[in-house]
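Weekend entry, working from home. Most of the wet-lab plans are on hold until the incubator is repaired, so I used the time to fold the two sequences that have been sitting in the queue since the last round of cloning. Logging both here for the record. First:
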Amino acid sequence: MNRLATTCLLALLAAGGACKKDEVSTPTATPEDVASLGDGAAEAGPTDPPQDPDPPELRAAFEAYLRGDPEAAVAALDPVLGTWEGDGRIRARAMGHALLALARAEDVVEQAEPHARAASEEAAKLHDPEVTAHARLAEGVFALGVEHFDDAVAALEAAASAEAPAELRALAQILLGQARIGRAYGPGGGSKLLHPEDLDAARAAYEAALALADGTPTAALLEGRAHEGLAAVAKYKGEHEALCEHAAKASERLAAAEATERLREGPRLLAEAGRCEGAGG
């Protein structure tokens, strides 16, 4: 099993390196498998078929995922995704599969792959940059989970730079920060820093996420996640004051947004690792 957005940084705390996969599960995807997910990117062409309004389940799933409740995200989408048929629901199907990829990857990354692939295939039928951003986000999460960090960085950079809502691009930057940290230490979660420049790039991604999150409906959740990432970067760089500052801000923002306990655990562990004032109390 391989937890990602809510727990990926927790593995870093214990090992001092990149996210580690539990020994129970060994992803078998090859680099070619990961790279092929994005083969269906749409090019400018004929007018797209008219799309129905986005079903409310998409928003419910997105907010549940950000809140650290992937099970609720799955519960929102699983019963209805198969009923979204026809050309008018291409956008809904693509985004639904992308969000399911994010939610499934929290626990078993292999379960994210078919949804990431479906999101890419559906997105290729439209010329909608928001839909394409969802597909790239799903591809990036799967690549991150199987520790193909170069592919993850490429997909998440594409999502972060797309013409999409600010909160979606903020999430892409947060996941990009995780991918950069993973690449800094390499597959397997070793303690040796291989690419220190990726820690600087991770910091830039988290700072970009903060700027994008400001004023969005999910600002507190996105800011909490971004501050957690900044605290992790500070830990690896040996910056005690910054670690404690960002861990405290992460805890405050996530508590204000009523995030789940497992999402709030990351900043708490960072603060304990840094022996910050008030940590563990």
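Second, folded right after the first finished:
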Amino acid sequence: MKYTTLLLLAISLLSISTFSQPDTTNTHKTGWIIKSGERNFTFKALNSAFNNAGVAQLNNRVFGYSIGIASRSITKHTYGTATLSYLSANNHEMQPQTLSSSIDIMELALNYHFALNNSPKLLVIPYVGYGVGYGSMLIINNDQNATFAQSVTNLTQNDGFKKRYNMEHLYAFANIGLGLERGIRIACYQLFIGFSSGYQLTTKSGWGYPDLPSIRHGGLEWRLSVRVEPNFRTKYD
């Protein structure tokens, strides 16, 4: 249900971009943005509980990607973004446990970026933002002792099992950071290729079990981004 809520909000935001029409007298330009990168989580307490239960520990380095819309003010050299992000935490390699773990996270964020300079070649852009997120954890039995011949003798029974645990509630977050962007004109589009690094603060979210610690989803992060907008000239360009 919470995943559905985030998706409906994201679709509503994307529809604004879809039905917007270019206006040569407008001071704003609307486009799209995609990002990919990593965030450094802290799973120490959760991994300790996993170790006690015989579950493989999670890697603190979490990969993710985002897609959304961006609206840029031509006169003020600022832009805002609304993005939907997916992040996935997986196990360290070469662990002996037969129970593996992973966490899937979706976040909906609003961010405000403001350029410190007006150079068309390289923009220095601090940003601040906030949003909400939700996630679930998957535990899988990876016991592969059965051979293929033994497995096909009983097709109604799985060789392993899996179970998903959902967070008790949505969590809120705020982030701050600094980015660099390089603008490039290609045909009728303006591309901004960027790199950013920052920090995200979050509230805690639990799993509904007293022996399973709540976690925060924040930490240091870095991202590569590509922002695209139609290159319809206005009197402010």
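Plan for Monday: verify the second prediction. The first helix runs from residue 2 to 19.
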